[in-house]
Design goal:
This protein has 766 residues and is mainly alpha-helical. It contains nine helices and five strands. Strand 1 and strand 2 form a beta hairpin. It is found in: Cytoplasm, Cytoskeleton, Microtubule organizing center, Centrosome.
């Protein structure tokens, strides 16, 4: 502390009370005492004064001041005593003149009870401040312990919650490490402030020790005063020096307490900042947990992608199996073609037999009319069934595309596809049976024309079964479409989750911003590629499925059968012409011809539809080839992305290791700081206890000084009374001397006739 401060000089009137603030600690008003005794300066006998006549040892005189108050002055050969009886209103306050020393080397000793009361109040205030400092230190210590316990509990809970994550610790930002280092830096600053506070406390202890020493010296001086009723100049100077030193030490104590308060306030503000930093760290840790959860969801999505790739491989295998089954179906279709050729041969035979039947038709016109009507009904039904089959084939093609996209994701659809193939096989078998039934019916027509009705009924039953089977297939395709829409919805949800994850990474991970940009770019490209691959893969599946080839073969067979039907119809037309020649006589033959022409036009429209279907199948083949190329490229891109993801995972693992090491270092530093703070707080508490003991001692000494002061006041009052009596006696002697001197003067003037000489006054009156 700076002890070489310049003194403060003030010019204040006697009546104005003075209130002094020494280093922001207020100086309390002092209590008023009954009287004020002031020892005058010790002076030597001066030769400048007039001659002392007569030369007795002691004289007294009364001096009137400018304010109207009287002051008693007692003067001897070696010293002089000035006494002010009575006390003004300003006697209760501390004057600046009481703190300054004399100009000619002599000092003023102020022996008043107000001063001791002031020192007592100062020491009480110091004691209260020390106790408040101790309470604040204990409160801060308790708060720190609670905060540390809360932080430890939260850290343990977070470690327990993160222990089961496995891969969740890989994506963590390094921002909490910087926060922990900043907290450690703030803790170091707090430690420096505590060190400065300790220095101030040590200084206050030294000041208190010095004050105790000064009090001891004052005690000794007071004891000497009690023993020696008269003060020597050396002792008076020592007493004044001791009072000055006491005042300086008290001011230094007040300054040190002020600095201690300032340091405690700064420490409290810094501790509040540290609490704020801890809250920010907790919020960052919460954000980290959220980011880790999003990372885990992203990894789950990657695992879903891998499972999708596995499903695609399984679907490829399933497609190969279907191709094998289609080859088997083609073999069966070839066998069916052979049977159809045999049926054609039989049809030729039937034509010859039909010619014979024409000859017999003249006899059986009524039966032929009925049979023609039945044949017309059958033809209409067959045309309707053909149209329904064409529409069903179109629906089957679209539904098969959807089933392929569905089979690329779910394994359950495989069983459904296999069941569909089984149904198709059963349908083909039914068709074969129907062909055999048709051949049987044709043979029966040659034998019996009436058996055609029974065969038509059988064909109707087969058509109804086919329609029911097609309806079941349509329902299955609708379910496949629904599953596809659900899968698309889940894909959209995954896309939204990925976007949310990107935004969170942009906010919370500034250091890994570049890597995140690369990941986002790759994800966007992969997303676009996935969408393209979905479309292309669906087309490719639709093209690569062997069912399309089977349908092509079926359409070819249908064309052949239609051509054969056309040939049959041509033959029937020839037969109808022959019959028309025979039926010119009858009006019903013309109606039959018109109906046959209508049937021919319908057959032509069916042939046009078949040609359009063939063109569509060719386009689908081209699209399948393009999709194969696109899927190969996408598989390469997926492999590259997987390699990059592995690299990023390795980098994240290294970053997690660095984070763990930095956290362990930060924890060690925090533990060291805690130990240091605890040791310092213990030392502070011990010093505070010592200070309290010293304050108790000082209070005991002050009580003793108060007692000694009361005794000194009693003795001084007795001395003052004696002095007053002596003053009265001296005044009486002075008056007698003045009268004696005047008598001498008058006698001298009468003797020497010197009336112009002035009346002589003693120098005591001045």
């Amino acid at each position: 502390m700076n002890r070489s401060l310049s003194p403060v000089h003030l010019h204040v009137s006697r009546k104005a009370p003075v209130h002094v603030h020494v280093s922001t600690s207020p100086v309390l008003d002092k209590k008023a005492s009954s009287r004020r005794m002031r020892a005058s300066d010790w002076v030597k006998a001066s030769t400048s004064k007039g001659p002392w006549i007569p030369p007795p040892g002691r004289t007294t005189r009364q001096i009137s001041t400018s304010g109207g108050a009287t002051r008693m002055s007692w003067e001897g050969p070696t010293h002089r005593l000035d006494i002010e009886p009575g006390y003004n209103a300003d006697g209760t306050c501390l004057h600046v003149s009481d703190l300054n020393s004399g100009a000619n080397g002599s000092t003023d000793i102020i022996l008043e009870p107000a001063e001791s009361n002031g020192t007592h109040t100062k020491l009480d205030s110091l004691r209260a401040e020390v106790s408040s400092l101790k309470n604040e230190m204990e409160r801060q210590k308790n708060l720190r312990e609670l905060d540390e316990r809360e932080l430890e509990i939260r850290a343990q809970s977070r470690l327990n919650s993160r222990g089961g994550g496995g891969g969740g610790k890989r994506m963590r930002s390094t921002s909490p490490v910087s926060k922990l280092l900043a907290e450690s830096y703030d803790a170091e600053q707090v430690n420096t402030n505590r060190e400065s506070l300790m220095q101030t406390l040590t200084e206050t202890e030294l000041d208190l020790n010095s004050v105790n020493r000064q009090i001891d010296l004052l005690k000794e001086t007071l004891r000497l005063l009690i023993r020696d009723k008269s003060l020597s100049p050396s002792r008076a100077r020592e007493a004044t020096d001791q009072t000055c030193v006491l005042q300086e030490r008290l001011s230094e104590l007040l300054l040190s307490l002020k600095t201690a308060k300032h340091l405690i306030r700064s420490q409290q503000t810094k501790e509040s900042k540290i609490k704020h930093y801890t809250e920010e760290i907790e919020s960052l840790l919460k954000k980290l947990t959220e980011s880790e959860a999003s990372v885990q969801s992203f990894r789950r999505e990657l695992q879903d992608k891998e499972s999708l790739t596995i499903h695609s491989q399984q679907l490829h295998e399933h497609l190969n199996e279907k191709e094998k089954e289609l080859t088997e179906l083609t073999m069966k279709i070839k066998s069916l073609e052979e049977t159809l050729s045999q049926n054609e041969f039989e049809y030729a035979k039937l034509k010859s037999e039909f010619q014979t039947m024409k000859r017999k038709a003249d006899l059986d016109k009524d039966t032929l009319k009925r049979s023609n009507k039945q044949q017309k009904d059958k033809v209409l039904k067959t045309e309707k069934s053909i149209e329904a089959l064409n529409t069903q084939v179109d629906c089957l093609i679209s539904e098969l595309d959807l089933e392929r996209s569905k089979s690329s994701r779910t394994s359950r659809e495989k069983a459904q596809m296999e069941s569909d193939l089984g149904c198709l096989k059963n349908q083909i078998k039914d068709v074969e049976k129907s062909f055999s039934a048709v051949s049987a019916k044709l043979s029966q027509r040659n034998r019996e024309y009436g058996a055609l009705q029974i065969e038509n009924d059988q064909n109707k039953a087969t058509v109804v079964s086919l329609e029911s089977r097609l309806q079941t297939q349509e329902n299955q395709l609708l379910s496949a479409q629904n599953t596809l829409s659900d899968a698309q919805g889940t894909i959209a949800q995954y896309e939204t989750l990925l976007r949310d994850y990107k935004t969170q990474l942009d906010k919370h991970e500034q250091e890994l911003h570049q890597k995140e940009q690369e990941i986002e770019r790759l994800q966007h490209e992969s997303y676009i590629d996935m969408e393209k691959s979905k479309i292309a893969y669906q087309k490719q599946l639709s093209e690569m499925e062997p069912i399309a080839d089977e349908l092509k073969a079926a359409t070819i067979k249908l064309q052949d059968s239609k051509e054969r039907l056309a040939q049959y119809e041509q033959a029937t037309a020839d037969q109808t012409r022959m019959i028309a020649d025979l039926r010119i006589k009858s009006s019903s033959v013309d109606n039959l011809k018109e109906k046959l022409q209508d049937k021919k036009s319908e057959v032509k429209t069916a042939a046009v539809k078949i040609e359009l279907l063939e063109k569509k199948l060719a386009d689908s083949d081209k699209q399948n080839k393009d999709l194969l190329l696109i899927t190969s490229k996408k598989e390469e891109l997926i492999q590259q992305l997987q390699f990059k993801e592995e690299q990023y995972i390795e980098e994240i693992a290294s970053l997690n290791r660095q984070l763990d090491s930095s956290r362990s270092d930060a924890r060690r530093q925090i533990e060291d700081m805690k130990n240091r703070n605890e040791s310092k707080e213990r030392s502070q508490l011990a010093r505070i206890a010592d200070l309290e003991a010293q304050v108790g001692r000082v209070n005991a000494q002050l009580s003793q000084m108060q007692k000694t002061k009361d005794e000194v006041e009693r003795k001084s009052q007795s001395k003052v009374r004696e002095l007053q009596e002596r003053l009265d006696q001296s005044q009486a002697t002075r008056k007698s001397l003045e009268s004696y001197v005047n008598f001498l003067k008058s006698s001298y003037s009468s003797i020497f006739n010197d009336t112009s000489s002035p009346v002589w006054k003693s120098p005591l009156t001045h």
